[in-house]
Write a structure and sequence with these properties.
Length: about 80
């Protein structure tokens, strides 16, 4: 089986681990390559045949777009 890349969102970082979820709700625990990750980052993660994440690439533009959308929604909610 070949390595597979999936888009995920970093939910939290705790005790040296990053917890990320795919759009379908599957949870991944990232143990390596997490030094530059922050909560809410959108990442492309490549997993091996055992489901272990072996490569992570932050999608900076998409992350910023999502953060801006959330910020706008909050502003609209409280500025009615």
């Amino acid at each position: 089986m070949e390595a597979e890349s999936k888009k995920m969102r970093v939910d939290r970082i705790e005790e040296g681990l990053a917890v990320a979820y795919t759009d379908d709700g599957k949870e991944y625990i990232l143990r390596e390559n997490i030094a530059n990750l922050k909560e809410s980052d959108i990442i492309m993660a490549t997993a091996d045949e055992n489901g272990n994440v072996i490569k992570v690439q932050v999608q900076r533009e998409e992350t910023e777009n999502v953060k801006q959308t959330m910020k706008n929604r909050l502003q609209n909610l409280f500025n009615k």
